[in-house]
Structures are given as C-alpha cells and as structure tokens.
Write a structure and sequence with these properties.
Length: 180
C-alpha cells in the first residue's frame, strides 16, 4: 500500500471531479478526521489516517482491503470508478438523475437510462457530465454519464438514451466475487 503518484492523483481527482466537482475537498478534510487515498494492487482505497496507521502493521500479502475501494487503474493506466464509491459520491453530487420505478430494474441490470424511464434531471446538466442516478424515493442506485443535456432531454424521442450506465448497486450481486 502506497500513496498515489502525481499522475495517479490527477487521474482519480479528474474522475471524481466529473461527479462531485469542487466537493473533492470535503472528502479529504472531513469533520471526523483526515482521510486519504492509497493504492494497493492497482486499486485506490479511501481510508482514514487512523486506519492507515493500523494497516501499516499488516503484511502486504495479507492485506485484502484497507478501506473503501473507490476504483481501480486499468492496464492502460486509466482510472475506473467502482460502485463501492457511490456512498461517498451521492451526498456531494452536483448533477442528479431520478429514474421512474419501471426503469429502476432495467438500470440495476446494467442497461442505460432511456428518456421514457427518466423521472427528473438536475437543471443545467451538460452533455457527457457525470451524474448520480437515484430512484424516485431518493435512494442512490448508481452513476453514469449524461448522454444528452437537460435541454436536449426535453426534445428527444422516448427510446433515446439519456444516461450512459457506468456502475450500479446491482453489481454487488452480479460481480460479488471480484468486488473488494
């Protein structure tokens, strides 16, 4: 387990900035202590400094997950955000999308959000902006990328894709062997 390099930190913060904007600072400087990001086996973990000190005594081979996995670096060194980061992204999300109850299940199976399943969308959402997907009962379901801006969403046909799927809570069931 080691600190992130400059390039790795930039990649992680650019991806997080796509979803929560300048609220990244609120993730690091929290009222309940200082938190940091660490890299372990190509995965980025978010943990408190207290937990970091305790994890230092565990051998590297025995350490499974020192904190909350925020994502991983691919072989081409691109950062891919994981669904386990949803609990930390949802409270600070700048742009949100609410899906109708009928399309919740479709999204949780890994499909994109269609215009017909769109309940609400945050005003002034730009195209290709990171969004957090909620149910109509304000339960975070996952996150994705807006395929259309808010203005374009009003004019498109009902079968057009509005949000590209990135991750959802259904992955806990689908990929339970590979999630750490």
């Amino acid at each position: 387990m080691r600190p992130l390099t400059e390039a790795e930190t930039r990649a992680v913060f650019e991806k997080l900035g796509k979803y929560i904007g300048e609220n990244i600072q609120l993730l690091v400087d929290r009222p309940d202590g200082t938190y940091c990001f660490r890299l372990h086996r190509d995965r980025v973990y978010y943990l408190s400094e207290k937990l970091l000190k305790l994890a230092a005594s565990v051998p590297r081979e025995s350490l499974v997950a020192p904190g909350t996995c925020f994502g991983k670096f691919t072989k081409s060194q691109k950062f891919r955000l994981s669904v386990t980061a949803l609990d930390f992204l949802a409270p600070y999300a700048k742009y949100k999308v609410w899906v109708k109850p009928g399309s919740e299940q479709s999204f949780l199976y890994g499909n994109h959000v269609l215009k017909s399943g769109l309940g609400r969308i945050t005003e002034s959402t730009a195209q290709y902006q990171g969004v957090v997907v909620y149910s109509m009962a304000d339960v975070p379901l996952g996150f994705g990328v807006a395929a259309k801006s808010t203005q374009e969403c009003r004019k498109v046909d009902p079968l057009a894709i509005v949000v590209f799927h990135q991750a959802d809570v259904g992955e806990y069931v689908r990929n339970e062997d590979t999630l750490t």
